[in-house]
């Protein structure tokens, strides 16, 4: 079994990004600039946003977090997004989800200029991804593709089972794995909560990607020997053993499944770190106007 070490790969990619940013600055260009908007004070969202800002600083980006009270109106937020869309000094904009219930996520996502949509959630970016055209790809699926690529995992002709069909992880993941691309070219099965007998599919899978948010869902009896296992799940449980006061668990029963897997990503230390690096990559691409003028 080989660990898909997100920390190692993320560190290497961050060094590459930092070196590119240093070159940009040396040639008189400004550094990439990412703005994050955080509405309300959800603990997990606060952690993610702080981590994104810290990672931006590490690679030499400019970045800032705009914090709003949960009571702001939808109109107020949309007006702020439009203002940022017009600001040429900002390359990437993310609005941290979830949002308070009175604010429409769809409206927010569609108001962000797709050229600054480094989260890859805008319908234009999703559509272009489906057509295998250059675009911003949702950070978690893109991070997984980078992990597969760096570990040179053969995917063409393999059967990939994705469990979970969310707009930000499972659905784009299933499309990316089926595209005529490398990595890609898989035969893909997409399972969700209405799929009966998921084990029937996972037992036949060469690659299993689990993104459902259920601790230890994928057990050893569900996977075949030599499979590649990617665990996206981030299930928090309160704990006295850690400084943060919580412990993270994946969707995979890691200790048991690792005895059968050829490759497996741990939680923490796997996909989560790749997600942040993928966001950094998208922001760099936005600053370089790699996909859109
Ligand atoms: P989500 O929006 O809640 O979607 C969950 C998906 O899982 C849905 O498609 C749901 O099916 C499916 N599902 C739920 N229970 C199931 C079951 N028992 N059997 C089969 N399918 C089931 O979740 P998400 O945003 O994709 O996140 C999934 C997990 O990944 C969470 O733990 C989240 O914290 C984590 N995550 C991690 C990262 C990272 O960077 N590592 C990034 C994003 C998310 P239906 O559609 O039928 O309801």
Distance between the termini: 44 Å
CATH superfamily of the largest domain: NAD(P)-binding Rossmann-like Domain
Stretches with pLDDT under 50, minimum 5 residues: none
CATH uppermost class of the largest domain: Alpha Beta
What structural category arises from helix and sheet content? alpha/beta
Number of helices: 10
For the sheet with most strands, the description reads: 6 strands, parallel
Tell me the strand percentage band: 15-25%
Instruction: Going across the biggest sheet, name each strand in turn.
Output: 1-11-8-7-5-6
Q: Which second-level CATH architecture of the largest domain applies?
A: 3-Layer(aba) Sandwich
Task: Please give the oligomerization state of what you see.
Answer: single chain
Whole-angstrom Rg: 19 Å
Any idea of the CATH topology of the largest domain? Answer: Rossmann fold
Give the rounded overall mean pLDDT: 97
Strand elements, count: 11
Helix/strand order:
EHEHEHEHHHEHEHEEEEHEH
Shape: globular
Helix content: 25-40%
The total tally of domains equals: 2
Bound heterogens, unique: NADP nicotinamide-adenine-dinucleotide phosphate
């Amino acid at each position: 079994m080989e660990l898909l070490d997100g920390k190692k790969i993320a560190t290497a990619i961050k060094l590459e990004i930092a070196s590119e940013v240093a070159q940009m600055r040396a040639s008189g260009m400004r550094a990439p600039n990412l703005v994050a908007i955080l509405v309300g004070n959800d603990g997990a969202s606060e952690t993610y946003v702080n981590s994104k800002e810290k990672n931006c600083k590490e690679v030499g980006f400019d970045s800032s977090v705009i914090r709003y009270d949960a009571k702001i109106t939808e109109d107020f937020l949309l007006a702020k997004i439009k203002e940022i869309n017009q600001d040429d000094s900002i390359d990437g904009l993310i609005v941290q989800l979830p949002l308070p219930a009175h604010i429409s996520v769809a409206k927010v996502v569609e108001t962000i200029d797709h050229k600054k949509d480094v989260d890859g959630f805008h319908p234009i970016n999703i559509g272009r991804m489906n057509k295998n055209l250059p675009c911003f790809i949702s950070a978690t699926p893109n991070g997984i593709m980078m992990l597969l690529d760096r570990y040179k995992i053969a995917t063409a002709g393999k059967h990939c089972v994705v469990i979970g069909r969310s707009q930000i992880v499972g659905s784009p993941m299933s499309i990316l794995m089926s595209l005529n691309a490398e990595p890609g070219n898989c035969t893909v099965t997409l399972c969700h909560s209405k799929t009966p007998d998921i084990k029937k599919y996972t037992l036949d899978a060469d690659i299993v990607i689990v993104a459902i948010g259920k601790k230890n869902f994928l057990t050893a009896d569900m996977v075949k020997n030599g499979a590649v296992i990617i665990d996206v799940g981030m299930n928090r449980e309160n704990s006295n053993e850690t400084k943060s006061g919580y412990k993270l668990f994946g969707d995979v029963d890691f200790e048991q499944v690792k005895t059968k897997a050829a490759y497996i990503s741990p939680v923490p230390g796997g996909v989560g770190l790749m997600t942040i690096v993928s966001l950094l990559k998208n922001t760099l691409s936005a600053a370089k106007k790699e996909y859109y003028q």
